Amino acid sequence: MEKLKSLRPVIVFHLLLNSIVIIFITGASYYHTPLEGIKDTAIYIIHLLLLQTTVAGLLYFLSLNKWVFHIVFSVLFLMYCGFSFWAYTQDISITMPLIQSILETKPDIAIDLISIPYILFFVVAIFALLFILKRQRSIQPTKGFLIFVIPALLAVFLFIALEKIRPGSLINRLPYSAVIGFRQYYEKPTLQLNKEIPALTFNKDSIKLVFVLGETVREDHLGINGYKRNTTPLLASKTNLISFKNLYTNNTYTGASVPQILTDELLEQKKESYTSIYSVVNKAKFKTTWIGNQTLEKSFAPIVYTNSEVILVDKYKSDFSFNKELDEAMLLPLDDVLKLSPRQFTTLHMMGSHWWYENRYTEDYSKFKPIIDSKYIPSLSSEQIINSYDNTILYLDYFLSEIINRLEKEEEPSLLFYVSDHGEHLGENGKWLHAQAGEEAKNPAYIIWFSEKYKEKYPKRVSKITKLKNNKLTTDVIYFTILELLDIKIN
Predict the structure, then answer these.
(1) What fold characterizes domain 200-490?
(2) Pick from 330, 329, 366, 361: which is nearest to 348 by CA?
(3) pLDDT tens, 169-199?
(4) CA 46 to CA 373: how far, in whole Å?
(5) Beta bridge partners of 312
(6) Which of 16, 292, 329, 388 has the most CB atoms in a 10 Å sphere around its CB?
(7) What string of DSSP letters covers 318-359?
(8) How confident is the model at residue 429 (pLDDT cuts 50, 70, 90)?
(9) Nearest to 57 by CA among 101, 14, 100, 90
(10) In b/e form, how buried is each residue of 129-160, taking b as 16+ CB within 10 angstroms?
(11) Are the beta carbons of 169 and 54 closer than 8 angstroms?
(12) 53 pairs with which residues across the strands?
């Protein structure tokens, strides 16, 4: 008891230190999480405490030397407070694109972001920092080292264990997300793109193709594909629309599927380098534009930047944000882009049906109920999850129909080309979401629509594509089908 009493100042210091870190840093990653009920809240409090336990182990070792703690902790604490302010107030995700913007933004632009609330947050944070530094000076930080070192090491190893059990459960939250963001910013892309584009044969006809790269949409939840619910009433009314039921991919997460779709990479054949579809289309004298509502990942960012123009909507909020812009935010820049050239290849990269489903559609499309009311999946019924997922498909129906409505008014022959990067698990064999084995995530939606002007001018192409409607295909065909529809031949 006497021994414990002598260690009390060290224990109290670390409890205060970790409480301050929770308030000013790690808690920001949980602030916007939608939860319903005591059980859900308890689960996420436990999750926060587990994350903070892993951080506590690192903080213990950092605190052993007063000078190291005063310098290193102070710098890290204030830096992380800069991140957490935006996570608290704007639900901004601390990912590589945000890190890139911080490091590459001009000072005068950065100064414009400093506001009164931002300053007040920092003033309070500085007082908290000074408080904890004063407390650290009043204790013997190495006292009880032989007692505390084992729990501290176990806390550090807890991070490794939890990430192995459930990858991404910790690294996508502060403080780890910032570390990952910096690492991704400085590491070289693994994808190697060919700089030399092969010789092409093409004509100079006017064509506008809008390529919509969807997210997490499985084909069997589309009403036009025979689903029991009418999830695609607007698309069902469109003529010259083909929906392919039998498209397959082995890639069940965005980081792998998107690079394969946008290059000449084949699912079963790996090469040292690949050719971006945009590089080929650029060479064929098309204007290429990328309009994205997803943050760019390292795996496909180099491909995106082979477009002649890149427009990112809501670029600092990733799929981890619960206040992400709806995909319809891309329609306004699309309207501007469609005016630019008679030869266009424009890509819209959707958030689509990515979890959290309730952030992917408006109240107007909340047709199927009850809907999900918590991020904690085990607390939800299968009916809730499927209802919310199907509501995202209703919104997709609206979104694609809006694009078709625009293309129908174009003077040039026009096309809509839609493909989802992968599907989604909806409870089959106890699996939910994606990025895991299972056939449900390997059968994405695939739709092509032709304008009357395109159909009249290129009837053979339309006929050839139509005949493939019921064939079993893989996402290998996407790259080459787009080139064929644009009348581009690689020699």
Answers:
(1) Alkaline Phosphatase, subunit A (3.40.720)
(2) 330
(3) 898 899 998 888 888 777 766 678 988 888 9
(4) 19
(5) 292
(6) 388
(7) -TT-SSPPPGGGGHHHHHHHTTT-SEEEEEEE--TT-SSGGG
(8) confident
(9) 14
(10) beebeebbeebebeebeeebeeebeebbebbe
(11) no
(12) none
d(CA 417, CA 124): 52
What DSSP string runs through 158-211? HHHHHHHHSTTTTTTSTTHHHHHHHHHHHSPPS--B-SSPPPEEE----EEEEE
How far apart, in whole angstroms, are the C-alpha atoms of residue 96 and residue 103?
10
Place of tokens 């590589």: 96
Question: What does the alpha-carbon distance between residue 126 and residue 123 come to, in Å, rounded to a whole number?
Answer: 5
> How far is residue 77's CA from residue 25's CA, in Å, rounded to a whole number?
8
The model's pLDDT over 263-283, given as tens digits with 9 standing for 90+, comes to 999 988 878 789 999 999 999
Shortest CA distance to 420 belongs to which of 219, 226, 235, 210? 219
* Cβ neighbours around 37 below 10 Å, total: 12
Ranges of each domain in the chain: 2-186, 200-490
Model pTM score: 0.77
